[in-house]
Amino acid sequence: MVGHYSTEALASASFVNNVFNIAIFACIGFTYGLTPLLGAFFARGENNRIGSMLRIGVRINVLFTLLITALMAIGYFNLHRMGQPEELLPIIRPYYIIVLVSMIPVCLFNVFAQWSYAINNTGYPTWIVLGANIVNVAGNYLLIYGHGGLPEMGLTGAGVSTLLSRVLCFAAMAYVFFGTGLGKPYRNSFMKHQVEKGDSRLVAKTGFPVAMQMTFESSSFSGAAIMAGWLGAIELAAFQIVAISGMLGFCLYYSIGAALAIPVSHGAGYNDTAAMRNSAWAGYHIMLVCMSLAIILFMSCGHVIMGVFSNDEAVVGLAVTLLVPMALYQLGDATQITFANALRGTSHVMPMLYIAFFSYIVVGLPVTYLFAFPVGLGLYGIVLSFSVCLLMAAALFLTFFLRSTRKNSTEKY
Questions:
Q1: This prediction's pTM
Q2: SS3 label, residue 222
């Protein structure tokens, strides 16, 4: 919808969304540290521990999100230093502020969603997000273009709609915990807040490496978006189309990865290494099927998908030339997501930080710059470089998962 409003709005959305992906994935990743902890308690029937650990998770995750929000606020005052086209800054600034405000609702929804996932109820978060997306689409239609007597707000309207949908997500998930039978076994210990020694540290210790893993991964893509902006507004808009199209694969892979982390965490609760490996490989088999379908979809219908995003023939034409490198990085993306989440399910999460930093920052960003500028491949080189860092991360995540699930292994990372 933003792409059909104007190329400038699409380019501005590309910059802000990709920069905020770093912050949002960091906050979501921090909440993901709760899943293996709560899942292990659930496997052992320790409902009181689930409630008390969830309350700790709410407090620590809100503090972490406030810290990230403060850092992103500093970024707002330095937007003019990031090398983006000058004409985009008046569009970027209000949208940036609205997305900044939405960080806390994103955090709180995901904390309670991890609780629901860990107790084997994935339905509530799924339907809530789907419902919120319907609200978001309707809000976009009304506020971007000014339908229904509402003001025409362009990209700012899309931001307002997104903020509303994120607040609704949290409100609905809070109702599930506090107002339905699903949350009843855990509410008493949540309200009493019976903390055991070391619980807060355990939540932080488990969540922080996952947050950093997702931060470094999203930083690689966000850095690529900034480099695309150095090439021009057309290139930045085309990069946004490719990034969103690629999300069709990424979101599917990550949902499967999040799902397989749950049975892995249950196996970890019983120290059953065979069950952990079986769950991971079963998830990977499903992942490979989905990856193959995504590649087929991109290569056969990619030009149609990308044409939906914009009326600007220059933007769509450039985006279509990036179909091959976009299809190539799907294998690395699917594999690294599988075994990163499998490793998360074991609670041996510290290697995730080191692997992500090396793969995405030490290797990924320099390779992106190298392919785009010294090699001279431009935007094609930026997208092509994703295969390098993703495949490297995939190999390392797989290696450490296998090490952490060796029979009778007592090794801690």
A1: 0.77
A2: helix
